[in-house]
């Protein structure tokens, strides 16, 4: 099992590297020039040259990438922000917390709502409840979350005046709408997925076996069906979590949340390469880590997957030295 | 000798998109105390549906009991509430299911699956139930230590043993064994059958053995009922059915197994297929395949006729054709 975890972590390294290289290239392809943005409209050729040199932007792309990677890997340094002239990581530290907090809360909300709804609509298949849940989840999946967010602002903030429209104002109450609006799509998707996975499980033979043992309907669902039905849902929740973090860009801008998403938009506008890169890398590393965690957790829950990796580990242990020697 | 289970006039239908399937039609069956009854028939004859009806486990989203009583120790199982049925299932009546590969829950340890029924019925502590589960594993010939493992780590034969152990945990009065050996290879088959027989004798359990294998019936059962198109077409003591069968379908079944004593060049399968339960032929359901059918068979549905004490046949010509 440990081998599996270690090998999965090792696989992460090339993935993250690929992400960095792609994002780095894309940032350099963005129209606009950070040097000009900083210098404004009045500058001499000499000033421009000096500034590019200081920012390291005069060197070839590959050298820039090498420097960036060196600083990142060896010094854990994301560079200096062009707009605030402070280390990027210092700028982002508090914003990171906000974004991940909202993301985690949205994901928790998704689990708390989608899991019971999915179970109920599967167990009471074709009931009014099931049709209601299906209708709502299809609606939620179809509506874009920025529109939902705007409608929520109109209803809860302007009409009813219950909640503040800006997250920064009003303490924790300001975070209710961002968390909910960020989760709507995930709730809808996860509910649908769990419903179908649960429907699949309750018609399995082992459910009939459980009933034949004298278990009540509730016991067969909780003791026998749930664990089987949740297994395929874990990866869904994992992807939803990364999607929520990615989607925070939109929601944070609407509610003026002081998180990474709103910072990302500002940095793109300011051609702040280092900040854009840092945010993108942080979000993608986070997604990769979440997916890894999901895989590890599923392996622990599902004895079949666990056994597969355990035995694979054993088989590999013997020819390992040979593999290294043969250059694998 | 009193009977443990008495089924009378049981009818079960399934509503499908293509119409109503009459899976079980007016079945009467009784199982005596400590007796084994073999229920024999082709695939789709309604054997499993009959067993599931006894357990009251027909999926009511599609299925429907249209008539009948199932008397078990003075109670009509058809009329019991779910909570009462839950006390009977797994404790008084238990079932060995057909396919051991899918019958066990893949994510629960084998010993916990066995202990479960003991835990809910005997209200024992989990630790005691676990000890009982390990005893059951030993009884079916699996080392108790393997209870810690999951179903995928077991071979097919061992899974079937686990299923049997699960069914026998609470010493049921009635065991419904639905093709307990069909999924197994022949060597394991006889082992499993011996084990069921042995356990049955030791625990004094009555049994309904569902199979399409007459050899297994001869080895294990006291009485036999032959099922065709949802009906029992011939029933009687083992000897009566094996030595003095009267129904042309039973005749066909025996002709389609090789005999050691008679010289046969070719087996004689029954021509044609089991009728579609959604469109059962009128008259005798077997007439389209019957070599002895006369015009009357196409219109008149035969009733059960007692040709000898305890030997019932559903055939209009039962006294003429195969009578010896």
Structural summary, described in words:
The complex is a heterodimer of chains A (328) and B (324). By secondary structure, chain A is mainly α. Chain A has a domain at 92-271: Orthogonal Bundle (MetI-like fold). Chain A has helices spanning 2-29, 34-39, 45-55, 61-75, 88-123, 128-142, 145-159, 176-202, 205-212, 217-230, 233-254, 260-269, 273-301, 303-317, 320-325. The longest helix of chain A is centred in the first third of the chain and has 36 residues, at 88-123. The model of chain A is unreliable at 313-328 (pLDDT under 50). With 324 residues, chain B is an alpha/beta fold. Chain B has a single domain, classed as 3-Layer(aba) Sandwich (Rossmann fold), CATH 3.40.50.300. Chain B is built from 11 helices and 12 strands. In chain B, the strands form 2 sheets. Chain B has an 8-stranded mixed β-sheet with strand order 6-7-8-3-9-10-12-11, sandwiched between helices. A 4-stranded antiparallel β-sheet of chain B has the order 2-1-4-5, covered by helices on one side. The chains are: A mainly alpha (328), B alpha/beta (324). The A-B interface holds A 125, 204-206, 208-217, 219, 223-224, 227-228, 231, 301-304, 307 and B 55, 57, 61, 82-83, 86-91, 94-95, 97, 99, 102-108, 116-117, 120-121, 150, 152-153, 163, 166.
SS element count, helices of chain A = 15
The 3D shape of chain B can be described as globular
Which CATH class of the domain at 92-271 in chain A applies here? Answer: Mainly Alpha
Please bin the fraction of helical residues of chain B: 25-40%
Count of β-strands of chain A = 0
Largest sheet of chain A: none
Integer average pLDDT of chain B:
86
Looking at the overall shape, the CATH architecture of chain B is: 3-Layer(aba) Sandwich
Which percent bin holds the helix content of chain A? over 70%
CATH superfamily of the domain at 92-271 in chain A: MetI-like
Apparent shape of chain A? flat
